[in-house]
DNA sequence: ATGTTAATTTATCAACTGATAATTAATATG
DNA sequence: CATATTAATTATCAGTTGATAAATTAACAT
């Protein structure tokens, strides 16, 4: 399978040295990362540096002038996707009390899924998780601090409940909603299931059912003593 | 001179071939698959056949007496995990009307997560999904037919709603619950997050909130004409 | 033009990959 | 005990991998 491909590649590379024109280092750097994201999303991190070079129309050793090792390239990929694409306005929108809680949560998930429901975001996130890097830990901590805590507090408030720091059990409850929506994306983008319900409808129904039912559980948790610590 | 000596020493020290005793082919086959599951769960499918052979205390070419190719070994691994570990009693339990719907659903997720919340099950499932094999499609079809449809129908009934075939939107609603619980396992087992809430509590809260709120959405869907098709 | 600098290429390494052929030895069978 | 069978080994191949050193050449300053 890979043999035939490599043979074709070898034939193509035997060309009389296309001798690419030079580029500014910064542009190159960004270009490398961009194409690396594309490739890693398709194949995973085992993708060869030669394959990447070929897609860039460049020789393989050149990559090592810009990244000391393949791992450093991978790190740059992480930064680009999971740090640079985070929007601080998500938190702000969730805390904007001029809007009803339902609208705020739905608007957040509409925009959030627009950001992360791409092969690049989701596939590389799962690849990273399986690899055991700490990206996922750091990202989840951000989600909890910037999204789930605000959602929990805002929801509590909308039910007329106290506004102390959210208990672990409360946060976990909203993780279930987050996970349910996230996994819709995994099914659609990663597993490539034919989805019978469109994204917006799914979000609306999930949030409606959740908000309708979460009140009773939150009330119970507010009354019972904190068991989890 | 020194080289010749070291070469002689190396030859002498080259273990006198531990020469494993023979085993029955069937046992070997099962043993290979078992250890392959272990290895693939750890490293992924790029795990080397030599590493596997070493863990089995066996030479690498021997693997090819039992599996024509590495891909055939991987297929055997899939079968073992995702076909052989499926319990038909899950469906039966969900349809057992002598029990309240809440108890049925909680009991199901308790047992189901006991089966799939292992590194082997979850990691290999994600590896397979990223690889683009059809395992995940087939498995999801089973989940939908054997779990989500029964849950949907049973829940509908418990709310005194009609009992026609479930609409896609209804099924999708229960996929959100399924995905939320599934993703708890991914966070715990794959990402290795320190979980602040134990599995049973998470399941109970998630199911309670869901059942409390799902009624209103189901009623709305029952009244409005089928938009999704 | 001329020389300097650095971007890019060529050539190459050692380690590792899945897979095959030939050989050895343990077991069952007569 | 002799012999056939086959489980398991050794040896090896061809291809791929990440990475390094040295040679080349494009761009730019003078």
Automatic annotation (TrEMBL), chains A, B:
The keyword DNA-binding applies. GO terms for molecular function: DNA-binding transcription factor activity; transcription cis-regulatory region binding. The keyword DNA-binding applies. Residues 1-27 are annotated as: Disordered. Residues 26-85 form the HTH tetR-type domain. InterPro entries: Homeodomain-like_sf, HTH-type_TetR-like_transc_reg, HTH_TetR. Keywords: DNA-binding. It comes from the Bacteria. Residues 48-67 bind DNA. PANTHER family: BLR6905 PROTEIN, HTH-TYPE TRANSCRIPTIONAL REGULATOR RUTR. This is TetR/AcrR family transcriptional regulator.
């Amino acid at each position: 399978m890979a043999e035939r491909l490599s043979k074709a590649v070898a034939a193509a590379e035997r060309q009389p040295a296309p001798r690419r024109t030079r580029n500014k280092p910064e542009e190159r750097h960004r270009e490398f990362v961009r194409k690396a994201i594309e490739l890693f999303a398709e194949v995973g991190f085992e993708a060869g540096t030669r394959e990447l070079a070929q897609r860039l129309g460049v020789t393989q050793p050149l990559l090592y002038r810009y990244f000391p090792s393949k791992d450093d390239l991978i790190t740059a990929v992480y930064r680009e996707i999971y740090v640079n694409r985070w929007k601080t306005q998500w938190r702000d929108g969730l805390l904007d009390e001029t809007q009803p809680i339902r609208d705020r949560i739905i608007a957040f998930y509409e925009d959030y899924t627009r950001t992360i429901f791409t092969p690049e975001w989701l596939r590389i996130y799962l690849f990273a998780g399986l690899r055991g890097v700490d990206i996922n830990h750091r990202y989840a901590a951000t989600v909890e601090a910037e999204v789930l805590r605000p959602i929990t507090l805002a929801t509590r408030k909308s039910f007329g409940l106290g506004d102390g720091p959210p208990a672990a059990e409360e946060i976990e409850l909203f993780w279930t909603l987050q996970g349910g929506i996230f996994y819709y994306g995994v099914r659609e983008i990663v597993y490539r299931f034919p989805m019978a319900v469109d994204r917006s409808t799914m979000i609306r129904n999930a949030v409606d059912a959740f908000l309708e039912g979460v009140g009773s559980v939150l009330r119970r948790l507010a009354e019972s003593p904190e068991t989890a610590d």
